[in-house]
Amino acid sequence: MGEPKLSRMKDKRWSLDGMTALVTGGTRGIGHAIVEELAEFGASIHVCSRKEEDINRCLEEWKNKGFNVTGSVCDVLHRHQRQTLMETVSSIFQGKLNILVNNAGIDISKQIIDNTADDISTVMATNFESAFHLTQLAHPLLKESGSGNIVFISSITGVKAIPLLSAYSASKGAMNQFTKNVALEWARDNIRANAVAPGPIWTPLLESVMVCFKI
C-alpha cells in the first residue's frame, strides 16, 4: 500500500478528513482518478456506475488501498434511478453531503445531419439533465453539510467547436452555463459550484471518439 498523500505534506490544510463525496461515473477514466484523489485526502466517497461488476471490481481495489468508498448501480439517464441514488447517499452519509462531482457522461459521435432525435435526447439527458437533476436532489444535503461543493466535469468542447461532437458539445455548453447559475443562486447556502473543462484525456470515452475519427 502506498504512503497516504497527507503524510507526505507539510501541513494538513488540504485534508478532507470527515468530508463526504458522491462521484457519478466513478469506476472509470476521470471519475476513477477523482475518487482516488479524494480518498487519498481522507474523504468518504460513494460512487455510482451502470455496471455492478465495475463497482465490485473498484470497491475491492479501493478496499485494498485502505480507501473508504461505497458504491451502487445507477444509470444517470433515468430519473427514478437518480432519485434512488440520492436516497442511498443520504442514508449512508446521514443526510449530509460535502462534495458532488457530476462526472458521468456519454458521447455519440456523428455528423450534425446524422444525429437522430434519440441521439440528442440521450446525450442531453445523460450529460446535462442528469447533472441538473442530481444537483437539485443534492441541494438539501449540501446545505445541511454547511460547506457544499459541486464540481461539474465539462469539456473543452463546451467552448470550442470540434467535428462530430455537436450533441456532446451542446450538453457541455449547457453545463457550463448551469454552473454559473448554481454558483449565483446557492452562494447564500454556502454552496460553491465550479466546472472543469478538460482537453483530450485518454479514457474509454475518448477512445470511442478516436475510433470515429479513424486515428
TrEMBL record:
<protein>
    <recommendedName>
        <fullName>Ketoreductase domain-containing protein</fullName>
    </recommendedName>
</protein>
<comment type="similarity">
    <text>Belongs to the short-chain dehydrogenases/reductases (SDR) family. SDR65C subfamily.</text>
</comment>
<dbReference type="InterPro" id="IPR036291">
    <property type="entry name" value="NAD(P)-bd_dom_sf"/>
</dbReference>
<feature type="domain" description="Ketoreductase">
    <location>
        <begin position="19"/>
        <end position="205"/>
    </location>
</feature>
<keyword id="KW-0560">Oxidoreductase</keyword>
<dbReference type="InterPro" id="IPR057326">
    <property type="entry name" value="KR_dom"/>
</dbReference>
<keyword id="KW-0521">NADP</keyword>
<dbReference type="Pfam" id="PF00106">
    <property type="entry name" value="adh_short"/>
</dbReference>
<dbReference type="InterPro" id="IPR045000">
    <property type="entry name" value="TR"/>
</dbReference>
<dbReference type="GO" id="GO:0016491">
    <property type="term" value="F:oxidoreductase activity"/>
</dbReference>
<dbReference type="InterPro" id="IPR002347">
    <property type="entry name" value="SDR_fam"/>
</dbReference>
<dbReference type="InterPro" id="IPR020904">
    <property type="entry name" value="Sc_DH/Rdtase_CS"/>
</dbReference>
